[in-house]
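Run log, item B.
One chain of 128 residues. Sequence copied directly from the ordering sheet:
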Amino acid sequence: MLKIRMQRIGRINQASYRIVVTEHTASPKAGKFVEKLGTYNPRTKARTLDEARVKYWLSVGAQPSATMHNMLIGAGVISGKKINVLPAYKAPEAPAEEAAPVAAAVAETPAAPEEAASEAPAEDAKSE
């Protein structure tokens, strides 16, 4: 299966990308690709795309990566909803030592109003 994805080029800390069509099993760093469709420079946000070739490869079954899908939507080459490529936020769990005192405090808090409520009717009954 063919993929439309980005292939990193450039020096350390100065990334730029080729937009290429490649076999999905091929490593992005391998340097082998079927066709170069454009470039993307994330520092200047400059991108060049051969829209006719992108549409051709999509028509013959090539699948864009999630990032390329979003880029193609942004460029107006294809239409649809963008894909969330970032991982979902996961709140850090509290350590077990801190959770135990909190649970004990929560257990004691509801008990106090119940005792006060149960004592109040008993006192009223005694005074009558």
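Observations after the first pass:
- The chain has a mean pLDDT of 81.
- Residues 49 and 75 are 9 Å apart (CA to CA).
Flagged for discussion on Thursday.
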